[in-house]
Amino acid sequence: MAPVVSGFSKLSKVDKIKWLAEHHFSNDQNATDTLVTYWNSDDSLQQLHDEFTENTISNYYLPFSVAPNFLINDTRYTLPMTIEESSVVAAASKAAKFWQNRGGFKAEVLSTTKVGQVHFSFEGNSEKLRQFFKEVKPKLYDAVSNITKNMEKRGGGVREIELRDKTSTIDKYYQLHCTFETADAMGANFINSCLEQFAKTLSSEAKAYDGFSKTEKDIEIIMSILSNYVPQCLVKASVSCPVNELPDTDQLSSQDYAEKFVRAVHIAEVEPYRAVTHNKGIMNGIDAVVLATGNDFRAIEAGAHAYAAKDGKYKSLTHAEIKEDQFIFSIEIPLALGTVGGLTTLHPLVKLALQLLGRPNAKTLMKITAVAGLAQNFAAINSLITTGIQQGHMKMHLMNILNQCNATDQEKEQLVEYFTTNIVTHSEVVTQIENLRN
Predict the structure, then answer these.
(1) Active-site position among 16, 114, 347, 393
(2) Rounded distance, CA 211 to CA 341, Å?
(3) Angle at 100 between CA 303 and CA 94, to 5 degrees
(4) Shortest CA distance to 204 belongs to which of 214, 216, 190, 218?
(5) What is the CA radius of gyration of the chain?
(6) CA distance linking residue 120 with residue 347, whole number of Å
(7) Which value, to the nearest 10 degrees, does the dihedral of the CA atoms of residues 201, 202, 203, 208 take?
(8) Of residues 242 and 393, more confidently modeled
(9) What are the pLDDT digits (tens) for 296-310?
(10) CB-based burial of residue 369 (10 Å sphere; 0-12 exposed, 13-18 middle, 19+ buried)?
């Protein structure tokens, strides 16, 4: 067990690694060398990465990939994708290629409103609180005018402040439910700054309010924080084509393919065990673009899964139907994304990713990201209802297994050729490597 350490954050990076080597890695020089190997040779770039977070000791690399041929609203894009999972980029690219000859993807932003809340306790007459709020509301807007000034120039700002009585769920619990428009910024810092000022103003104004008793004047602020549930920051993406333009094979006719596809999506709409995996596949595509463009994929994940359960049961984020001989596949998902602020101007690869996309505004990035999720889901369902998911996935996973076995370039070449016509399993790869080496 490692000893308690004091002042760890104040140690240099080298001394942090020395402490870890002594207490966690048994002074294994390989561990130290590995951490140092992943340092950037450019000192200024390494310092930039060190300052992104605390106690940085090295860099953790993920592949920065691209998926070409995405036709979105008649504009062609190459999507940046940062992800380690085998087959995701290949699957997205395959879906993009399929749909580019069938009109491409259509996408539209339905709304862009974001939410933040001031949670507080009030012990007193609720009608008096409502009257107080009515009088103090203009002062709340005035209190954040210095914070909102620049955002308002870009078309954003505070849209509404509501008093919500939540005492039916928790005794004495109320909230200021606030809606915001943050233009091309994701807006977390802006929203939280406004909320904290709302809380201060609410508290100070209550103390001076003549309509309150002494007890009522002491409003207790519990917390002020944005919400990552953004059901009014929505984007929709879709694809459609005549049923007879869908894959037609010896196993499935185009009509059979369409009906089986729709049924597969319907299962994810009614069966939560399937829906979770179904939506996880969607997020493979979405998270990869979100991470590559410097946005908060944890917030996007949380909001998306909450939206999937908005009707009281967790279900698919995508929908499919056959309507008048047209196959229609779509997604509706909340995506609070930004193209200014945060890492967008700091991380060199994020800047390149946004340049790759033509320096989109937030709404355009929402559309692109939703399309990535829809494409990924189409590719996954296509595999599931035809060859099965493992055939393509394991072929992509083959290189990972070969690297685990320290295969040489010659061995890789021979085994990639062998597994073009044979099923990939970990045990079979190991067997074939041993056969080659013997």
Answers:
(1) 393
(2) 43
(3) 70
(4) 218
(5) 27
(6) 38
(7) 90
(8) 242
(9) 999 999 999 999 999
(10) buried
30-42 residue pLDDT tens: 999 999 999 999 9
| pLDDT, mean over the chain | 94
Active-site position among 280, 310, 413, 417: 280
The stretches of 77-212 forming alpha helices (DSSP H) are 88-100, 126-143, 145-153, 188-207
Q: Which of 361-365, 390-394, 406-410 is predicted least confidently?
A: 390-394
Output the CA torsion 123→174→309→290 (10° steps): -130
**216 is a catalytic site residue:** no
85 catalytic residue (yes or no): yes
Mention every residue, 6+ apart, whose C-beta is less than 8 A from residue 40: 46, 49, 59
CA 253 to chain CA mean position, Å = 36
Predicted pLDDT at 59: 94
The separation between the first and the last C-alpha atoms of the chain, rounded to the nearest angstrom, is 43
CB 241 within 8 A of CB 104: no
Please, which pLDDT band fits residue 353 given cuts at 50, 70 and 90?
very high
CA distance 329 to 72: 14
Strands 114-121 and 64-72 come out as unpaired
Given the residues 13, 18, 50, 85, select the one marked as catalytic: 85
Catalytic entry in 278, 296, 315, 363 = 296
Q: Are 334 and 308 in contact (CB under 8 A)?
A: no
Residue that the structure tokens 């399937």 belong to: 274
